[in-house]
Amino acid sequence: MRCVFCELLAGRAPASFVHRDEHLSAFVDLRQAVAGHVLIVPNRHVETLYDLDEDTAGRMMALAVRVARALAAEFDPPGLNLWQSNGDAGGQEVPHVHLHVQPRRVADGLMRVYPNGVPAPSPRETLDELAARLTARL
Predict the structure, then answer these.
(1) Do 25 and 41 contact (CB within 8 A), yes or no?
(2) Residues designated catalytic
(3) 3-class secondary structure for 78-134?
(4) Residues 95, 99, 104, 107: is their CA dihedral positive or negative?
(5) What is the dihedral of CA 77, 88, 26, 32, to 10 degrees?
(6) Is 16 helix (H, G, I), strand (E, B) or coil?
(7) CA distances (Å), origin 14, targets 10, 33, 44, 60, 99
(8) pTM
(9) Which mean pLDDT values do the consecutive 10-residue runs of the chain (138 residues) have?
């Protein structure tokens, strides 16, 4: 199965590029739920965040800041989201790591984070235990 983002990067499929350099590309998402939705991808095929090297990850975030500032200047949105999804359970639709940069408006209907309402805070001991387990893995 061919990667649609690799096809875009190779020029075999159309894309509206915002940025291209030797490491990364940014292009306007084909599906504009709100105007200004941009995707940032590494030029080499990397399937998930877990496979991404830290240098490329840092470059992606730095470019996200630049794109966010451009979106702020162009659209003056009251909000902005950065998001990245991995695997089917995470909602990843294209198996090529990508970072979404999307200006947001109040009540734009996108990304309902807590569909059942904001959850109650977890007990401190549960949070401390989780933090300790994750720290040990870093």
Answers:
(1) yes
(2) 98
(3) CEEEEECCCHHHHCCCCCCCCEEEEEECCCCCCCCCCCCCCCCCCCHHHHHHHHHHH
(4) positive
(5) -40
(6) coil
(7) 10, 19, 18, 22, 19
(8) 0.90
(9) 93 96 97 92 97 98 98 96 94 96 90 78 93 94
